[in-house]
């Protein structure tokens, strides 16, 4: 707290946003005057916020009261001095401080996404390994729209015209929004977010921001902060930024591609490479674990009904867990690199995923493969879209059912987290089923 207090005073902060992430990735917490924040040394929040759905509903009472204290007690939220961010869009000097959550006895709250990632990272630490990750975040820019029944349309750029057609890797199409992205880069630098390349992706007004590789927990924090930063920058310029997995019909979906490798802590060596630069046995087992277990943990990578609309062939989105060298039709891609940078790119996670849970699931699958020495399938050298091995669940319902039956999820993530997460996803899906879609009205209204 002394280090944090010094930092707050040096930056003349007057307000502190004390935040945690819920299961859906929504930031929840309290806004406190800096003096009160320093006096209280954290905050208290009802543990029940971790069982709230994306629609603001709650899970069924039988699950709610089996996982939470019937008295609806508070959890203790303690600030992490390594997860502090100055907010450049506020009128008063304001800091966002990410908190960790504990019960009254000091035990980490199992339902907390940040604690889930910490639990997985502890497994690696026990082996003397350090995961290194580099997320790539795709998103769409769209015109503002206050009617959810109206399809989203591309925004107006500097030229005064909306983008038309596919403009993959177009510099000029990205330049249409230069003022927005200049603010975004300035704001990210101000907050210490280590972002790298800006790319115009395949979709109309679809962009991608790449993060520099680094510590897994830090990058999960940065992705959460970046999403909010990108939305704020877009709103400042009169448009919207969305991280929905599939926000626009007949356009590609948006992913959170996760590059991951593992260092030996003592030597600093990448354990995915042999001394001659070839693929190590541990790397092969890591791939094998991804193939075996991703289908069981898919709801952590594809958490919403909309997530599964992204999984279509010939749309730069994987539909299986095949692996291959520099093969973008595979869910697991090995990019071209030297021995030091040898890594795996998990292309399955959606941009809508909770960054803590997606990174935790991706790393856990690889860890289990290394522990169990799971051999991968032969590398795919052609179009993985045409191969049916290691097929994935095709709906959120089937994916959640598979996760519920997963002994691996319960062993490593815990019964409380597994049951709570499944309950939240099912409550969200029940809410979704109550809504009549425009497709139903268009094709069934006067035809059946």
UniProtKB/TrEMBL annotation:
InterPro entries referenced in this protein's UniProt entry, alphabetically: Gln_synt_N_sf, Gln_synth/guanido_kin_cat_dom, Gln_synth_cat_dom, Gln_synth_gly_rich_site
Cofactor(s) listed in the protein's UniProt record: Mg(2+)
Claim: Membrane is one of the keywords in the record: no
Gene Ontology terms, MF aspect: ATP binding; glutamine synthetase activity
Domain GS catalytic, first and last residues per copy: 113-448
Keywords: ATP-binding, Ligase, Magnesium, Nucleotide-binding
Matches recorded under Gene3D superfamilies: Glutamine synthetase, N-terminal domain (3.10.20.70), Glutamine synthetase/guanido kinase, catalytic domain (3.30.590.10)
Short name of one Pfam family: Gln-synt_C
GO BP annotations, alphabetical order: glutamine biosynthetic process; polyamine catabolic process
SUPFAM superfamilies for the chain: Glutamine synthetase, N-terminal domain (SSF54368), Glutamine synthetase/guanido kinase (SSF55931)
Family affiliation: Belongs to the glutamine synthetase family.
Protein name stated in the entry: Glutamine synthetase family protein
Annotated source species: Marinobacterium lacunae
